[in-house]
Structure formats: C-alpha cells, structure tokens
Amino acid sequence: MNNTAAKDISISNEDFQKFREYFYRKTGIWFDESKRYFVDKRLAERITATRTDNFRSYFTMLRFQASGDELQKLINSMTVNETYFFREEYQLQCMVNSVLPEITEKKLDRSPIRIWSVPSSSGEEPYSIAIYLLEHWEGINYWDVEIISSDIDTNMLHCARKGLYSHRSVQYLPAHILHKYFRNTDEGYQICDELRDVIEFTRVNVFDPLETKRYRNFDIVFCRNLLIYFDDMSRRQAAENLYDAMKPGGFIFLGHSESMSRISPLFKVRKFSEAVVYQKPLYTEARR
User: Fold this and answer.
1) Tens digit of each residue's pLDDT (9 = 90 or more) over 93-131
2) Looking at domain 3-78, which of 1.20.120.1730, 3.40.50.1450, 3.90.1150.10, 1.10.155.10 is its CATH number?
3) Which candidate in 5, 144, 208, 217 could, as Cys together with 112 as Cys, close a disulfide (CB 3.0–4.6 Å)?
4) pTM above 0.90, yes or no
C-alpha cells in the first residue's frame, strides 16, 4: 500500500457524515468527532488499496459491491483489537468460584456447559477461559464444556485460529502456564494444538439479530469492552441479542467500565465477592 498516496486523499466533513451513518447502519458502531483522524486515515488507506479515485467513487463501490468483500475489509480496518491473556483475571476467578457452581447445581440434564466469548479479538480471551478452567475448576473433569468465540473482524479470527502471540500478550501469565500451554517459536509464543482444536471461532455482528439468531443456549457469555463502541440504541439492540443467546439463568460478564444496568432492564445484577455479573432471569416476562 502506498501510504504517501493515502495521505493525499481528502475526506470532507460531508464525506465523514455519510460514511459514519452508513457504517453505523451496517455494524452498530458509531464514530464521534474525536475519531475523525482515525476514520479519515483508514478510509484513505482503503481508497488507495482499491485504486478508486476518491471518496465518492469508493463509497459508491462500497455500497453496491454484491460480494461485500470490501465492506468486510473496511470493518477489519476500522475495528480496534487490543487484549492480553488473563485480562481482568478477577472475572475468570468469579466464573470458576461463583458462577459455575451455581450453573452446575441447576443443570439437571447434564448438558454441556456452553460459553460464548465475543469479541474474540486475536484469541487471548477464549484461550484464557479454557486455560483457567483446566487449571482452576475441578468440574472440568466431570462436565463437558463448549467454547465458541466470535468477532466481526475476519483478520482477527484468522489470528485467533493461528494462536501465535507476542511477549506483550503473554506477559502476565505465570511461567508454568506459559511452559505448559505454549511453545516458543521464532515468530512468538504459539498456543498448544489441543486448545486450538477445542475452540470454535466464528464471524458475527452482535448488533444484527439475523446473524446472532443461530447463537443460542449459552450458560456464560463474555462480552467485555465491546458495547462501549456502540451508541445507546445499538448498544441496547446488541444487549437484547446477547440476552436471546443465553439460557435462562445464564450469566454475562462485561468490561470493568461497562454497566448493563445502564443499557437494558432485561438482566438482573448479581454481586459476587469477586465481581459484578449480569444474569438472565430464570423466569422472564414477555418483552415489551
């Protein structure tokens, strides 16, 4: 890509307004004025990469391209993915010490425990969940567990499936965990094949109910630091989609700065000793 050429492409105020309305309708993500430099830079890069002449030509192509390939590439460019292993570890502790005992006590049919991690980013979160279960939950010897991890960014899903990480990503892992579940390669630290094989990675836009309708019956959902990128309306829509994906009595973990109470009245607040978690009630009234 010719970055010099990308810098020469001008994005007007009107262009920015048109684009962010379009991107919002497609993804639920709203870019305010503080993100203007970031958006302009990414748009200019995509205009250059597609060899379109200007924003107008690019925007026309983007909207009418039947395959949707360029929209996906743009989404990949516009989404921010930054995480590391054992991030907000107190929530993983809460899952093992408080949430799972409650779930297993009520799961009389012995069906598998289903966990959904969204967004997957480059895979640190779902792999952290798997490692934490193996290391700290005795029930892993008696219960089947299914972990599905999803993202809107196909580049991140590719990275997650590959499971290759820098020192920065693994810096908070204890040495024995790093030795047990990773192998050191010339490219970095790669997660062991056993864990790469047991987690299913899928693409989904949590804002779109048509895309999330195939995700159902989850006992636990991790949706940390995603809803902060939405505005109030799309945040509520995403929360309702997540609600529908959960089993009655299921739990959802949000990022430490997020509050489901300010997003949707559907969930019940549960305050455990380790963390605040939100629960789908066992018995629910019809949604208004």
Assistant:
1) 999 999 999 999 999 899 999 999 999 999 999 999 999
2) 1.10.155.10
3) 144
4) no
88-119 b/e (C-beta count within 10 Å ≥ 16 → b): beebbbbbbebbbeebbeebeeeeebbbbbbb
Tens of pLDDT, residue by residue over 124-146, are 999 999 999 999 999 999 999 99
Return the structure tokens found at 53. Answer: 């002449």
Catalogue the E-assigned strands of 7-126: 113-117
Cβ neighbors of 217 (< 8 A, separation 6 or more) are: 114, 245, 246, 247
Fold of 89-279: Rossmann fold (3.40.50)
Nearest to 233 by CA among 78, 75, 80, 25: 25
> How many residues appear in the chain?
288
Q: Within 79-231, where are the H helices?
A: 89-94, 100-106, 124-136, 154-162, 167-170, 175-181, 193-198, 209-212
